[in-house]
Amino acid sequence: MTAFLVVLVIILFGISVWQMSRIFQLAQVKPSVNSEIASDKDNNTQGYLMMGFLAFIYILTIVSFWLWSDTLLPDSASEHGSRIDNLMLISMILIFFVGIITQGVLHYFAFIYRGNKVKRATFYADNDKLEFIWTIIPVIVLAGLIIYGLFTWTDIMNVDKDDDPLIVELYAQQFNWKARYGGNDNTLGEANVRLIEGVNQLGVDPADPNGQDDKIVTELHLPVGRKVLFKMRSQDVLHSAYMPHFRAQMNCVPGMITQFAFTPTVTTAEMRQNDHIVEKVANINNIRKEKSAALAVNGEEPLETYEFDYVLLCNKICGISHYNMQMKIIVESEEDYNSWLAEQPSLAEQLTK
Amino acid sequence: MSAHAQVHAVEDHNDDHGHHHKQTFVTKYIFSTDHKMISKQYMITGIFMGVVGILMSLFFRLQLAWPDHKFTIFEIFLGKWGTDGVMDPSVYLALVTIHGTIMVFFVLTAGLSGTFSNLLIPLQIGARDMASGFLNMVSYWLFFISSFIMMCSLFVEAGPASAGWTIYPPLSALPQAIPGSGAGMTLWLISLAIFIASSLLGSLNFIVTVINLRTKGMSMTRLPLTIWAFFITAMIGVVSFPVLFSAALMLIMDRSFGTSFFLSDIYIAGEVLHHQGGSPVLFEHLFWFLGHPEVYIVILPAMGIVSEVMATNSRKPIFGYRAMVASLLAIAFLSTIVWGHHMFISGMNPFLGSVFTFTTLLIAIPSAVKSFNWITTLWRGKLQMNVAMLWSIAFVSTFITGGLTGIIMGDSALDINIHDTYFIVAHFHLVMGISAAYGFLAGVYHWFPKMFEGRMMNKKLGYIHFWVTAIGAYGIFFPMHFVGLAGLPRRYYSNTSFPYFDDLADINVVMTIFAIITIAVQVVFLYNFIYSMFYGKMGSKNPWNATTLEWTTELKHIHGNWDGPIPHVYRWSYDYSKLNKDESDYVIPGQDFIPQNVPLQDNEDELDH
Fold first, then answer.
1. 10 Å Cβ neighbour count for A36?
2. Which of A68, A308, A318 faces B171 most closely, judged by CB atoms?
3. Per-residue DSSP letter, A305
4. Starting at the edge strand that comes first in sequence, how are the strands of the sheet with A239-243 ordered?
5. Is ipTM strictly over 0.90?
6. What are the φ/ψ torsions at residue A179 (nearest 5 degrees)?
7. Shortest CA distance to A75 belongs to which of A85, A88, A89, A66?
8. Which chain B residue has the Cα nearest residue A310?
9. Where in the cell is it found (chain A) (predicted)?
10. Are residues A142 and A189 in the same domain?
């Protein structure tokens, strides 16, 4: 019985809605043919909204900088990095200059030239001089940027062997990093995945004398002020060794050895004192404290306090745990580095163990 | 608004019009060879795929903003990968992969170019249909099959393809490396292979039609910019899609037949694979040889649509028609020699990086010319703020914003530190994703009356849709640049493993909130679209007072487009607000536009168009 009543109510409700919509339809004056075309009133409203939108873009830009500029990377911790930062700054100033002006003009035109019945548009189809001007200006500006960029790029990528760089292999596998130092001879032993066996996880050729003193570690230590030449290898899929604080990145490709070199200039200890980093870390720890409080309510363990460390991330999609493939980097004085390295076992020691 | 003046239609002897066959439901709505119906089929399929792709982005945006939160919605939609409302890392990668694939190929390539090339090429050049209606039908149904297979791949046991939309091997080649590289990846490759066949058939048809079937008087320099854009897009497609096809074929062989095109020296899951001598970098070259032109395949049709809509609604000729065509050609040419800028740090020779930096930054020049020309088209116009016009203005805005950051990405030295971070994600979403989507929407609102026999979309709903989307899109992607500059890599399921990135949490929340609002307002569009299809108000034959030929056809769709003879063309398509010789009134008194099929009048100066 209830079900019947419910059905009846629904049907009656449907009929009443239908009848009401009929009444509304009949009551309406027949709309003019052009009612879906912008009227002068629409043109006016939308023109003003365009100016409002321009304000929105500008305000969004300002607010974003105000809120989030402290999340950005600190000054570069490598020699070439400051040149990249410089080029970045110039490019940014340029694009903000062009962006602010063109957005302004675009939306202002949309506002000021909004149409009405009396206005007449200007038939203006061509102007070779104008076209020439706005072809040649980008040409000149871009020529400058290209030349600056190319010099920077070539300097970064061409490694001078005379600098006697420290040779370090970065070895990528799903989902961790290992580093191999050349040892006393600063030369890496030959390696291939086909030689991987037991503790010899990097497939270093046991017969190669250069490989005997190699040292394999899971934490990257670098002496400050000395050029480091990284040789990258991957054993399974593509990975990318990304060291954002040093403005350094190179893909690790199975089947080939890629390389990237840079000179670290700021030790970990110094970077922890950097104003930008101090502020950022304080901010992060506040966030972590709040989260820990929330966790404590649920009876879970609180988060550890964060201390800054350089980090090597994987930046090429490599599988399920891509988001957590990292290695700590420590930049320290030459002496600290040497004493740390001396403690690490060589490959020969590991293999005979 | 006066009606068209003096249409001198000359008897056309070459076409036999007036013979209309009886059509069944199947031949009219399903296996139709009529370009107008095929265009609608492309549009509806494209919009459906768009809904799927955008919903996926909603899921991973939720995950990124609130990684610790449990969402019932995950449990409902993701099944075993969303147990207890926690998203599985593997399905996160699957979502970003399929989102990218669907949006780039199925929505912005087939949905945009497929819809509007099919609709406008015959109508605007004055042809009764495509050169081959049958191939056109085959092209659509191949696209449909490919969409269907892509959808099926979502339900594979081990999960859909999840190696990123760029499917770099070895990750995409080895099921041991990631579960999605099993059956899911096989279906992905099959789907794309069929998609490429569809795209090639379509493109060849477009090219032949534009070259051969233009009506009398329609010289290449009188073509509307839409047609130029579709024509050039089709050519880029023919040049570059076959390369992706061969790459996909080689990948299939590496996966299934033990070849080693892209694989070498691999130790995975405790064993050494036999592959030797291949190179993943080779795949990257092949992929981006298509992949980069692909972004222009996406953006050029949008540029064409925007040029056309903007001129019509400014009541002015497009500024610098010849420069617009030249810059389209320049962009198309340059697009085929810049692919290496995706590979600066792939391990290829750094000298190549220099070459590609040079060619890449050159593309900024024609792009700048186009942007300045659009802005000048607005200058001293009489802007009619129809919804399509708003999308066009917003297109120029996002194209400039996204294009400018391209100057940073394209510089190899700067790319080192922002490669594969959220900076690139923000860049390409603005310059190609959002911009192309705006171009698509401009086209939908503008040509809706042409597609649905005179029915028009509701403008109030259109305005709401536009403003919320325009604000939301910047709200999502402008802050995203900061996340990238902070050093956060893309495709991270969660950044909680790095306390260093903890302070990015609130940016992520802001982006996600904007994303939810933007996605929600698309419902308004869907409602408006479907409602107007059946109940939209009828407009006039030429609602926007445009000059192009499609508005000379009858409201009711007929096979062959024009009931009488095909109109001839006597002028270019941008005679808006042209004055007579003594500048006392418009050439046609009281009417600020001269349709292309109106012969030169005694009282007007002949320009070189």
1. 25
2. A318
3. P
4. A220-223, A326-332, A310-314, A239-243, A248-252
5. yes
6. -125, 140
7. A85
8. B500
9. Cell membrane; Membrane
10. no
Distance from CA of A5 to the nearest CA of B (A): 32
A contacts of B347 (beta carbons < 8 Å)? 232, 250-251, 253, 256, 258
CB contact under 8 A, B266 and A254: yes
Instruction: Please tell me whether residues A190 and A230 are part of one structural domain.
Output: yes
CA distances from B573 to A300, B451, B570 (A): 70, 20, 10
In this complex, do B383 and A113 lie within 8 Å of one another by their Cβ atoms? yes
The pLDDT-based confidence of A35 (bands split at 50, 70, 90) is confident
On the question of a cis peptide bond just before residue A175, with omega within 30 degrees of 0, the verdict is yes
- Contact yes or no for A180/A215 (Cβ under 8 A): yes
Name the token pair of B603.
């009282």
- Do A217 and A178 contact (CB within 8 A), yes or no? yes
pLDDT value at residue A27: 61
Closest partner residue to B607 (CB to CB) among A31, A37, A125 is: A125
State both tokens at B547. 């000059």
A185 shares a domain with A149: no
The confidence score (pLDDT) of residue A51 equals 96
For residues A193 and A230, state if they share a domain: yes
User: Which of B378, B397, B505 comes nearest A103 by C-beta?
Assistant: B397
Please count the structural domains in chain B.
1
Which residues of chain A from 166 to 225 reach within 8 Å of chain B, CB to CB?
A: 173-174, 192-194, 196, 203
**Is residue B134 included in any domain, yes or no?**
yes
Residue B461 CA to residue B457 CA, distance in Å, equals: 8
Is the CB of A50 less than 8 angstroms away from the CB of B393? Answer: yes
pLDDT digits (tens, 9 = 90+) for B433-491: 999 999 999 999 999 999 999 999 999 999 999 999 999 999 999 999 999 999 999 99
| Tokens 């009048």 sit on residue | B601
**Is the bond preceding residue B170 a cis peptide, omega within 30 degrees?**
yes
Say if residue A221 is in the same domain as residue A331. yes
Is the minimum CB–CB distance between A271 and chain B shorter than 8 Å? no
Closest CA in chain A for residue B276: A255
CA distance A137 to B163: 42
CA dihedral of A332, A334, A335, A337, whole degrees rounded to 10:
60
Domain of A311, CATH number, reads: 2.60.40.420
CA B277 to chain centre: 37
CA B285 – CA B512 distance, rounded (Å): 34
Cβ contacts of B96 within 8 Å, gap of 6 or more: B56, B60, B164, B165, B491
For residues A106 and B403, what is the distance between their CA atoms, to the nearest angstrom?
15
**Is A295 inside any structural domain?**
no
| A148 domain-assigned | yes
The confidence score (pLDDT) of residue A163 equals 82
Q: Is residue A277 within 8 Å of residue A74, measured between CB atoms?
A: yes
Indicate yes or no: pTM above 0.95.
no
- Is the distance from CB of A61 to CB of B479 less than 8 angstroms? no
A222 shares its domain with A136: no
Within this chain, do residues A344 and A241 fall inside the same structural domain, yes or no?
A: yes
Task: Give me the residues paired with residue A240 across strands.
Answer: A251
B320: left (phi over 0), alpha (psi -120 to 50) or beta: left
Task: Verify that A148 and A168 share a domain, yes or no.
Answer: no
pLDDT surpasses 70 at B606? yes
How many independent structural domains does chain A possess?
A: 2
Under 8 Å CB pairs connecting chains A and B tally to 384
Are A250 and B347 within 8 A, CB to CB? yes
pLDDT at B61 over 60: yes
- The answer to whether the Cβ–Cβ distance between B401 and A321 falls below 8 Å is no
CB contact (8 A) between residue B393 and residue A110: yes
The shortest C-alpha distance from A219 to chain B (Å) reads 16
Reported as a pLDDT band with limits 50, 70 and 90, residue B15 is very low
